[in-house]
Design a protein that fits this description.
Length: 324
């Protein structure tokens, strides 16, 4: 009887911190992974800050498409900053830990920013639809007031979605188990170690991801269906090439983002694999924010032109200051 009582007391011990085991299978992982993660984070920060700065500095980039792109750059910085700094700090420690409250906060902001980005990519798809399929009405369809409203709505949706998931996740019980088989706090790894029933949490993930995420994905697919149909109607090769070029960057980002998102959240916990899901979450939360500015800058002549103008103006200022 006494042993059963002590077992019950031990199992009800509240968890005050979690220990990450995401890279425990790699010997001396902190030595080999710290520098790559640091480089990825710095490239993400510099690349997205550069895109944001160019949009603010160059008047030719003050259009709806680049207005939404500036929001995308801020979101990519936020997503990366929520996860990577903590991972880097843990690489320098023997035990990779995070407190319970910090874990919930990390999860809240991670879901908020990723949810906002999903909605923003759908808004950007509509912007491309309006530009290519309704060019004569584009300025009316995508006026400043509507752009601001749509951008604000994506942020509100992201934080509302996250508040629902975090509220339900705060009810999870861990019965003294604090080993997270991951590198960050997210819904799937927390549900994996919970000792109470998680069917409601899984149902909520499936419901929201399929209703909201599915609706956003369908909206993007329909937008690009009409976009491709309009482009194919263009008779000139040059016109078709320009139309495809206008949408290529956004389409690549959409495929990468939603592809990783579907793999990350749309599988039952019984299929949870440490190696596979750690890799998928790393791609989803860390690598994708780094790729977005590279995709938009390498494939976009306007962005490259704006960068060239800014560099030339800075060179002119530097030269004139030295002459004085």
């Amino acid at each position: 009887m006494s042993s059963e009582l002590s077992m019950d007391v031990r199992n009800q011990t509240p968890v005050v911190e979690f220990v990450f085991l995401g890279f425990s299978g790699i010997p001396n992982s902190h030595i080999y992974l710290f520098l790559p993660f640091l480089v990825i984070y710095l490239v993400t920060l510099l690349g997205n800050l550069l895109i944001f700065a160019l949009i603010q500095l160059d008047p030719s980039l003050r259009t709806p498409m680049y207005y939404f792109l500036s929001h995308l750059s801020i979101l990519d910085i936020c997503i990366s900053s929520v996860t990577v700094p903590k991972i880097l700090v843990n690489f320098l420690r023997q035990r990779q830990t995070i407190s319970y409250n910090q874990c919930l906060a990390q999860m809240f902001f991670l879901i908020s920013f990723t949810g906002t980005e999903s909605a923003l990519l759908a808004v950007m798809a509509y912007d491309r639809y309006a530009a290519i399929c309704k060019p004569l009405h584009y300025s009316h369809l995508m006026n400043i007031k509507l752009c601001t409203t749509l951008a604000l709505a994506t942020w509100v949706w992201g934080f509302l979605d996250s508040a629902i998931h975090t509220a339900f996740s705060s009810k999870l019980q861990f019965c003294g188990v604090n080993l997270i088989y991951h590198t960050l706090c997210d819904l799937p790894p927390l549900m994996k170690i919970a000792c109470n029933d998680v069917h409601l949490n899984e149902l909520l993930i499936q419901l929201i991801s399929r209703l909201a995420g599915g609706s956003l994905s369908l909206f993007i697919l329909l937008s690009y269906f009409f976009i491709m149909r309009s482009i194919l109607k263009i008779r000139s090769i040059t016109g078709k090439r320009k139309g495809f070029s206008t949408c290529a960057s956004h389409l690549i980002v959409v495929v990468i983002y939603f592809g990783n998102g579907i793999l990350n959240y749309n599988h039952p916990s019984v299929d949870y694999s440490l190696e596979t899901d750690t890799l998928i979450s790393t791609l989803y939360c860390i690598v994708t924010p780094m790729l977005n500015p590279l995709i938009y800058s390498l494939r976009n002549k306007e962005v490259k032109g704006a960068l060239k103008k800014v560099l030339e103006s800075q060179r002119t200022v530097f030269t004139s200051s030295h002459k004085e």
